[in-house]
């Protein structure tokens, strides 16, 4: 039996997605990381009414907090992709001293935000070639003050103490920096694709910095929609049918139905694979130096075998599932998880839960903002 009272626990990592709410907390001792507690709750319905959504989230987070045995109530969370704007700008090297003002001016004008009230931040992506010129590229993150306030109100009404709100991309990249501590690993470039229920996040970077982020508004909900339309069933039934196929529970599925499910998803899968491949090409053309040699998939929709095949074909590099909890002691939650699974859907929650540990490269930490 592991006595966690002697370990220093980290803040809880809280991943609020459209299809589920996941919570994980870690502790460490003598260089070993342990899970203190964790679990998830599926979202049965998706409402456009904020109060309905908020009531569900508060109820779900409170339930998870009460039953998971967490130490303390501090939490690191993230905003869903549809609640935050992200993109990139290029500036002349001579304008480096004025980047903060330039970013806030450009972003506030583009999205109708107030630079003095709303949240606008950025990280340096690096130097890029534009023709014969060298430019500085930055990646911006922007959202309204009301969005932040709504998010914090959910946390506080759930009895949690907010420590940080991270962009999803930072949480994803943090997983790989944890395993890349050797000097030789510092320049290794990772191409990360997180496929969720409503959107896909593409992140490219190394231990030193994140160089590229793209949010693609395609995910599992579109796949479910296509299946539902083809078979004339509900979205919920389509999601259940796909889940059975992905989990290998095909005994009760007619072969013709299985073919219809696969055929109905082809258009969306090809569209998503093409969008992801455009991200890969953009990075390869824009940034000089090391290139990614593999694509790493995470998220609840990353297990879709037809999508993996399409990505392998479009990208021309190896494609593999992420293993965010590899090397972590899972004794506390082993009864809740499938030990044969790579647990790729826990990538964001893991990245949030390990925020701030000294295992993370110090230069990268300097780019992370609350």
Account of the protein in words:
It is a single chain. The protein is an alpha/beta fold and 370 residues long. The protein has a domain at 85-142: Dna Ligase, domain 1 (2-Layer Sandwich). The chain has ten helices and 14 strands. It has helices spanning 50-67, 99-111, 145-157, 168-178, 220-231, 235-246, 255-286, 305-315, 347-353, 362-367, and strands at residues 8-9, 12-16, 20-29, 32-42, 74-78, 85-92, 119-130, 133-143, 161-166, 190-195, 200-205, 210-216, 294-298, 318-321. Strands 1, 2, 3, 4, 5 and 9 form a six-stranded mixed sheet that branches. Residues 1-6 and 359-370 have low confidence and may be disordered.
Protein topology:
Blueprint: E1 8-9, E2 12-16, E3 20-29, E4 32-42, H1 50-67, E5 74-78, E6 85-92, H2 99-111, E7 119-130, E8 133-143, H3 145-157, E9 161-166, H4 168-178, E10 190-195, E11 200-205, E12 210-216, H5 220-231, H6 235-246, H7 255-286, E13 294-298, H8 305-315, E14 318-321, H9 347-353, H10 362-367
């Amino acid at each position: 039996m592991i006595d966690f009272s002697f370990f220093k626990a980290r803040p809880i990592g809280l991943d609020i997605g459209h299809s589920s709410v996941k919570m994980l907390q870690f502790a460490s001792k003598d260089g070993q990381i342990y899970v203190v507690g964790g679990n998830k709750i599926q979202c049965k319905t998706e409402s456009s009414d904020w109060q309905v959504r908020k009531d569900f989230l508060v109820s779900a987070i409170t339930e998870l907090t009460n039953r998971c045995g967490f130490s303390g109530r501090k939490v690191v969370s993230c905003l869903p992709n549809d609640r935050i704007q992200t993109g990139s700008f290029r500036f002349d090297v001579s304008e480096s001293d004025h980047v903060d003002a330039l970013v806030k001016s450009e972003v506030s004008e583009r999205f109708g935000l107030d630079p003095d009230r709303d949240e606008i931040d950025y990280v340096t992506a690096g130097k890029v070639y534009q023709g014969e010129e060298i430019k500085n590229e930055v990646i911006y993150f922007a959202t309204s003050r009301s969005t932040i306030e709504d998010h914090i109100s959910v946390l506080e009404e759930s009895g949690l103490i907010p420590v940080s709100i991270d962009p999803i991309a930072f949480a994803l990249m943090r997983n790989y920096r944890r395993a890349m501590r050797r000097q030789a690993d510092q320049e290794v470039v990772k191409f990360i694709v997180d496929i969720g229920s409503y959107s896909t996040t593409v992140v490219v970077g190394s231990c030193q910095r994140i160089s590229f982020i793209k949010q693609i508004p395609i995910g599992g909900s579109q796949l479910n929609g296509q299946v539902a339309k083809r078979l004339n069933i509900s979205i919920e039934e389509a999601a259940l049918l796909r889940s059975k196929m992905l989990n290998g529970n095909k005994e009760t599925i007619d072969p013709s139905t299985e073919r219809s499910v696969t055929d109905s998803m082809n258009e969306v899968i090809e569209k998503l694979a093409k969008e992801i491949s455009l991200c890969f090409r953009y990075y390869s053309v824009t940034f000089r130096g090391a290139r990614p040699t593999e694509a790493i998939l995470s998220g609840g929709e990353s297990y879709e075998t037809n999508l993996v095949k399409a990505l392998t074909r479009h990208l021309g590099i190896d494609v593999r599932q992420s293993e965010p909890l590899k090397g972590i002691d899972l004794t506390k939650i082993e009864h809740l998880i499938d030990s044969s699974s790579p647990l790729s859907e826990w990538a964001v929650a893991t990245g949030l839960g390990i925020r701030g540990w000294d295992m993370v490269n110090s230069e990268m930490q300097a780019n992370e903002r609350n």
